[in-house]
């Protein structure tokens, strides 16, 4: 038989245990969602994200980090996503006149033992052409990447805001 003094303690312990386990489960799920590392052969894909787009926008941009853990160069040769009619491999360069110019690439090299970074603000990126719907912060979508040596891998692309000012520098106004 329980005394009146132990009963509140048991309720408190159960509540702490229940909420503690729930917090642990949420933390583990968030950690897994944030990590989002994917492998394609020797290529480790990290931090795939896209920037939100305004309503009615037909283009978007996605970025990621690709680390080649192998001894031979690989190349990203293709990307596809149900979020867009097509995905193009792009680079952006600021000309002498200060205007950003985009150029479609046949492939994006990932040299052995290096990391190829895609970030807003110019340089390498994945152009999402003819979006099926606007990219909304907090949502995500799948994208299939195809590497010349490593093959295909599906990654989850999180939609999140870029660093302040980066989208304007990128030239897409995203």
What are the salient characteristics of this protein?
174 residues; alpha+beta; globular
Short précis:
By secondary structure, this protein is α+β, with helices and mostly antiparallel strands.
The figure for the number of domains is: 2
Helix content: 10-25%
**What top-tier CATH class of the largest domain fits best?**
Mainly Beta
- How far do the termini sit from each other? 66 Å
Biggest β-sheet description? 11 strands, mixed
- The rounded Rg comes to 22 Å
CATH architecture heading of the largest domain: Sandwich
Q: Which term fits the overall shape? A: globular
CATH topology of the largest domain: Immunoglobulin-like
Q: Could you list the spans in which at least 5 consecutive residues all have pLDDT below 50?
A: 5-35, 165-174
Helix count, DSSP H or I runs of 4 or more residues: 2
Give the class from helix and strand content and strand pairing: alpha+beta
What percentage of amino acids are in beta strands?
35-45%
Round the mean pLDDT to the nearest integer and report it.
81
Relevant CATH superfamily of the largest domain? PCu(A)C copper chaperone
Query: Number of DSSP strands?
Result: 11
Give the SSE order as H and E letters: HEEEEEEEEEEEH
Q: How would you explain this protein's 3D organization?
A:
The chain is α+β, with helices and mostly antiparallel strands and 174 residues long. The protein has two domains: 1-35; 38-170, Immunoglobulin-like (Sandwich), CATH 2.60.40. 20% of the residues lie in helices and 44% in strands. It is built from two helices and eleven strands; from the N terminus they run αβββββββββββα. The chain has helices at residues 6-35, 166-170, and strands at 38-40, 43-50, 59-68, 74-80, 84-94, 100-104, 108-110, 115-117, 123-131, 140-147, 151-159. Strands 1, 2, 3, 4, 5, 6, 7, 8, 9, 10 and 11 form an eleven-stranded mixed sheet that branches. A hairpin with a 5-residue loop joins strand 5 and strand 6. The protein is globular. The relative contact order is 0.23.
């Amino acid at each position: 038989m329980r005394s009146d003094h132990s009963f509140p303690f048991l309720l408190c312990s159960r509540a702490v245990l229940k909420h503690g386990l729930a917090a642990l489960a949420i933390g583990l799920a968030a950690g897994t969602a944030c990590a989002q590392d994917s492998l394609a052969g020797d290529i480790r894909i990290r931090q795939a994200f896209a920037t939100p787009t305004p309503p009615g926008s037909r283009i978007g941009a996605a970025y990621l980090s690709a680390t080649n853990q192998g001894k031979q160069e690989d190349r990203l040769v293709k990307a596809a996503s149900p979020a867009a009619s097509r995905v193009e491999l792009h680079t952006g360069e600021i000309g002498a006149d200060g205007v950003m110019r985009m150029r479609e690439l046949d492939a994006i090299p990932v040299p052995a033992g290096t990391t190829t970074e895609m970030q807003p603000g110019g340089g390498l990126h994945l152009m999402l052409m003819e979006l099926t719907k606007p990219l909304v912060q907090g949502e995500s979508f799948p994208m299939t990447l195809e590497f010349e040596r490593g093959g295909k891998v599906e990654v989850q692309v999180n939609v999140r805001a870029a660093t302040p000012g980066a989208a304007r520098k990128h030239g897409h106004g995203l």
